[in-house]
Amino acid sequence: MRVLMVAAECFPLVKTGGLADVVGALPAALAASGCETRVQLPAYPTVTAGMSATQTVATFGAMFGGPAWLVWGKTQGALEVVALEAAHLFDRPGNPYVGPDGDAWPDNHRRFAALAAAPTHYAADPGDGWTADLVHCHDWQAGLTPVYLRRYRGTPPPVVFTIHKIAFQRCFPAAAASELGLPPKLYTPARFRVLGPSVVPQGGLVFSDRLATVSPTYATELRTPRFGMGMEGVLTERAADLVGILNGIDDAAWNPAADRLIAARYSARELAGKAKDRAAVQAGMGLQPDPAALLACVISRLKSAS
Prior knowledge:
By secondary structure, the protein is α/β, with parallel strands linked by helices. The protein has two domains: about 1-245, Glycogen Phosphorylase B (Rossmann fold, 3-Layer(aba) Sandwich), CATH 3.40.50.2000; about 255-305, no CATH class. It has helices spanning about 20-30, 45-50, 85-90, 110-115, 120, 145-150, 205, 215-220, 230-235, 270-285; strands spanning about 1-5, 35-40, 50-60, 65-75, 80-85, 135-140, 160-165, 170-175, 190-195, 200, 210-215, 240-245. Strand 4 and strand 5 form a beta hairpin.
């Protein structure tokens, strides 16, 4: 099976959170089951710099304000990437979503609509003979992909949409909807939730063939007002198509027996080094060097509830 993933992040090329880890690790995990995966990403400067053996596989005219084309290449770890080159959208400082001043780019609706629209040209009609059997979209940045595929491809490949964190969704001014190249009849409450003067695209939830999320528990929580972030209605309607698949880890990347960034290496059979790592953490954090004290470490976002 050939799978085209569509995402805004992918480790090690670009990362702001766990989404990138999943998109970077999943292709190798799927390869063990016979899947051939390519990851479509925006051509941020770090993405372009991390690709080699590149070749142009599709060329567009104007795409949301400027020329664009798709470039296939590989990363150092042999991950196959299809980068959407569009300098007017992606060749910028800052992280994928905000500028150096910390404010979101005002044209994010166009930037990620371009990312979502590109598979209409590549997934179903590639220039290099590689045809996707399945399109796998990740989070809100790729949410319009199934909408564009159904609108502009008569028989698109099936689409799976994965919700990594439902709280990460974006509102756009209602006027921005006219810039997305979609007919006005699509803008109904059942397809795009309206909040005052803003529109929250939910096309990925409505138009995808199947929905997935990061655990069975989260799949249940998403259908409640407490955790659904306003999307619990459509997710309840599509409960039969929603499945929770527990996130795993890349045990090659996260392997304490081979990790050169920790004070001492250890394994399940040779645990002696773990005590040295514990002592190093206590020293580094200014804690008492007590081998019997409870030590809990968490690496996570701190997010205001407001």
